[in-house]
Amino acid sequence: MTYDRLVCANCAAPVSEGRCPVCRANRERLQQGNLFAGLNPTTLIALLAVLIAAVALLAHQTA
Ligand SMILES: [Zn+2]
Questions:
Q1: Reduced to 3 states, what is the DSSP secondary structure of residue 6?
Q2: How far is the CA of 62 from the centre of ligand 1 (A)?
C-alpha cells in the first residue's frame, strides 16, 4: 500500500504532494500508518474511506 496515487477529496491533487492541510494531514496519518503495516490492507482502505467521507462532509457543510 502506498499513498502516492491517492487523490485528495479537498483539493483533488495527489495527497503525496501535500498541497493543502487536508493532504498534509492525510499524508502524515498514512505515514504514521506504517506503524500499522502489519494491519489488514482492507482496514487501511476502510480508514481512508472514512477520512475522505469526513472531508467531503466537511467541505459540503462549509460550501
Ligand atoms: Zn488536498
A1: coil
A2: 16
Tell me how far the alpha carbon of residue 36 lies from the centroid of ligand 1, in angstroms: 23
Q: Domain ranges in the chain? A: 3-62
Q: What is the pTM of this model?
A: 0.45
Please give the grid coordinates belonging to residue 29.
Answer: 496519518
Q: What is the pLDDT of residues 26-58, one digit of tens each?
A: 888 877 766 555 567 788 899 999 999 999 999
Q: Quote the CA–CA distance of 18 and 49 in Å, as a whole number.
A: 18
C-alpha 63 to ligand 1 mean position (Å) = 16
Q: And the C-alpha cell for 21?
A: 492541510
* CA 28 to ligand 1 centroid distance, Å: 12
